[in-house]
Design a protein that fits this description.
Structural class: mainly alpha
Strand content: under 5%
Number of helices: 10
Number of domains: 2
Order of helices and strands: HHHHHHHHHH
Helix content: over 70%
Length: about 160
């Protein structure tokens, strides 16, 4: 016997149970889920009418997101802290801020200061893990290491200081 499909709220809570999501990210996922479930139940002739109903489902999803935020399931400060905790060990401040900006969020001043204060130490750990304890004297290898650290979001000035030390 087939189980009844989960409600949109149940799916949203399921996604949030796996990890924290930003409002923008969760909205995008729920719209995709809603669109797929609507298209799966309709005939080809009715799909055009379904596109007209998309605006109504967007409003319903926005209302659901408001409800989830009011109930404490969806919290953007928790999302920022989670992303910061997960990414800080591997990436620099610039990369973390860019990722949060894609979600329409930003670090507060205290979080930025803490991130900047530990950036040299984190860059040294990432560099040491990837390239070993001894700095290279080869210019091509130094350029490769520089590109690697810049791609990880560490500032050019910090990378220069790290590779000179």
């Amino acid at each position: 016997m087939a189980r009844a499909p989960l409600s949109l709220k149940a799916r949203a809570i399921g996604l949030l149970a796996q990890r924290e999501h930003s409002r923008i990210e969760l909205r995008r996922k729920l719209l995709s889920i809603e669109r797929r479930s609507r298209m799966a139940t309709l005939d080809a002739d009715m799909r055009e009418d379904a596109e007209d109903a998309a605006g109504a489902s967007e409003a319903a999803i926005d209302a659901l997101l408001d409800t989830l935020a009011a109930e404490g399931y969806l919290d953007e400060t928790r999302f920022v802290e989670s992303r910061l905790h997960v990414r800080a060990g591997r990436f620099g401040a610039q990369r973390i801020q860019q990722e949060l900006a894609r979600h329409g969020l930003q670090l507060d001043a205290e979080q930025q200061a803490a991130l900047r204060a530990t950036e040299m130490e984190r860059a040294r750990e990432v560099w040491h893990k990837r390239f070993g304890p001894e700095p290279s004297r080869d210019v091509a290898e130094q350029a490769r290491q520089t590109r690697f650290l810049l791609a990880r979001g560490f500032s050019p000035d910090l990378v220069r200081r790290l590779l000179r030390a």
